[in-house]
Amino acid sequence: MGSWRESSGTGAGQKGRPVRGLGKNGRVPAQNEPVTTFAALLTDEGRSLLAELRDHDPARELATATRLRRDHPAELVSAALGMARLRQRAVAKFGAEDAYRMFFTPNGVEQSTRRSVADYRAARFAALGIRSVADLCCGIGGDAIALARLGIRVLAVDRDPLTCEVARANAEALGLAELIEVRCADVAEVDTAGYDAVFVDPARRGGRGRIFDPEAYSPPLSWAIEAARRAPHAALKIAPGVPHEAIPDDAEAEWISDGGDVKEAVLWFGTAPGARRATLLPGGHSLVGAGLPDPSVRAVGRYLYEPDGAVIRAHLVADVASGFSGSGLIDETIAYVTADELRATDYASAYEITDVLPFNLKKLKALLRERKVGVVTVKKRGSAVEPEELRKKLKLEGPNSCVIVLTRAAGAPVMLLGHAVSA
Question: Which of 107, 150, 164, 205 could tie 184 with a disulfide, CB 3.0–4.6 Å?
Answer without folding.
Answer: 164
